[in-house]
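Review form for a predicted model. The reviewer records the input and the model, then writes brief findings.
Reviewer: anonymous (R2)
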Amino acid sequence: MIKKPFRVGDHVSWNSEAGRVRGTIQKKITSEITFKGYKRHASKDEPQYLIKSDKTDHIAIHKGSALRKIKPRKSDNRK
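Model under review:
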């Protein structure tokens, strides 16, 4: 089964050192970039995604294989 690619605006979760994190995809990256001092290898066939955390507004980049699409909680819309 081929997974559908993620899209900007998708709500996703991923594992971090602090546990499961939730956020929203801000950008799909399809070429190599340097982010926070590290080279990130991305391509059209294996994109990476720029994600903004729901709780802390922290920005992270992850491969699609590290992400799981989820439904946003109603409380996520509060600020």
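Findings: Residues 31 and 42 are 5 Å apart (CA to CA).
Further findings: The mean pLDDT is 88.
Recommendation: see findings above.
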